[in-house]
Amino acid sequence: MAERKFKLGRALRIAAAVMLLALMVYGAIQLSRPLPPPPLPLPNPNGYDDFIKATKYIVGDPLKVNTEKTEELVAFVAQNREAIRLTRTGLSRRCYVPNGYYGSPAVFSPQRLMDLKRLCWVLAAEGKLAEKEAHIDDVIRTYLQTIRYGEEIGRGGLMIDKLVGVACEHDGILALHRNLSRLSPSQCREIIHALEEIDQRREPIETVWPREAAFERAMITNWKERLSLWKGKLTSLFGENRTKKQRLLFTRHVKAYEAKTRLLFTEAAVRSYHLENATLPKNLGELVPQYLKSLPQDPFCTKTMIYRIQSQGFLLYSVGPDGVDDNGKPLKESTGIDIPMGDLFIDSPSFFAFFSFL
Predict the structure, then answer these.
(1) Domain containing 325: what range?
(2) Is residue 309, in this structure, part of any structural domain at all?
(3) Could you report the per-residue pLDDT of 306-356, keeping only the tens digit for each?
(4) What is the distance between the alpha carbons of residues 202 and 212, in angstroms, rounded to a whole number?
């Protein structure tokens, strides 16, 4: 009996050793592979370079400007004309985040991302000034550019680049939304066409994963860091998978802003229809193709956005991350990994849970 137990224990130890050796060999092969090339060649000229240059011309702190005082806005916008001009130059070109993290050592600058967010606030200040001066065409132009800017500063980047980008987009979305009631049918159409184009040009979320993997590997400069990375991968096999959680939260976050963009141009289409026909459309199908190119798909399910006529106006929303129609019950702010319940509206709160996993 003792001999049988000894043989069984020995066999188990050998099996465990073989499995561990196989995992180590696999890890060594993965880590020794050359880094993948950038998914796309960098455009030349690259609009992203203009954005970086524009950040050097920011004068003052945009968050300290009292947007209720016209004279402060006028002075701030005048001081930042060059930054705004360079931003628009960048938007006139193809943009792609430089792939410095594909080389060694890796290039990553949190300050660069903060500066890019400040540039968004500079654009927003110009839009706010146009609002106060009732220059509606300038309001539309500036806030559409703010949304486009948010999309372009994340193109070709990591998750953190994308998250800063969608935060900028959100500023533009909310600003346009609060001005919808001031727009004519033709101005609504201008917004619809621009936002549909932005929506169609979005990078698929899945394109970020290879760049994240390349960045992670480019950060390795010695054998200790290689060992630490491999230890983390082994831990994810048998315990908490941090990368999977990051991706789930990131996907949820980005889809929320995709949904808000579609809600915005759909609401603009409903408003344009109402102004021209003195009645609300019975369903979203009545908006196609005169107002919308196609029915707006909900990123969180396989159906279209939900639209319902009510006694006072209408409801328009996405089912949100839980994928369930809660009959217009507003989504609550989420600060954890659990899927938030409720439906997503344009003014629904953001999801902050992702940042605790960075």
Answers:
(1) 220-358
(2) yes
(3) 999 998 899 999 999 999 999 999 987 665 667 788 999 998 876 544 343
(4) 18
